[in-house]
Every structure is written in structure tokens, then in C-alpha cells.
Amino acid sequence: MKCNLLNVPEQQLKEFTPESETIRSTTTGIQKLIPADILIGCTGLIWGKRTPYKPVGTMFPSWNTRPAQVLDERIVLQGHPQEIVSQTITFLATHLHEYLKSLITK
After folding, report:
1. What is the pTM of this model?
2. How far apart are CA 18 and CA 2, in angstroms?
3. How many domains does the chain divide into?
4. Is 4 a member of any domain?
5. What does DSSP assign to residue 105?
6. Is residue 15 in a domain?
């Protein structure tokens, strides 16, 4: 789906794995499908196979805004899967809130 629908390069998936740095390509692909001003995506590892670079709790939040502001992060969170998801949502909501506040003050 990421390759066919969102145009994520297959080589990128092989190099980084699906739950990784491919998120920028994913949100860029979504931006071509959905006419929205802000697109937020996130992938990561809340359980399962881990590596020294990517322990459980490693998340890759990303967003694109029109015209072209991009946020790409790699964050490592602690806790049970539900806690990691909750912390990720809080992280994204905080950044979104700050971005929206910056639009008001312009």
C-alpha cells in the first residue's frame, strides 16, 4: 500500500523498514491524495522486533503543511503500547498547537 498508493519508494522500505524514516514519503504521498493544509503521519514501534537503533517506543512523527513546512522527528518513548501511543499523540498535539499559534501571531 505504501508503495502503490502513496508512492513510497520500495528501496526506502527495504533500507529503513516500514516503521521508520519512510514517514516523510508517506505524508508527502498523502498530501497528493487529500487536499488538506496540514497532514500528520506517524509510524513507529510500540511492540515487537527491535534493534539497537530502533528500540520499542521509537516513533517517527511527521507532518507536511501547505506550502511546504515539514516536521520529521525520531523520538523514543517509554511505557506500555497504550502509553507510547498516548505520548505520541500528546507530542503531535503540542507541536500542532504551537504551529497554529504561530499562524495567529503572524
Report:
1. 0.77
2. 9
3. 1
4. no
5. T
6. yes
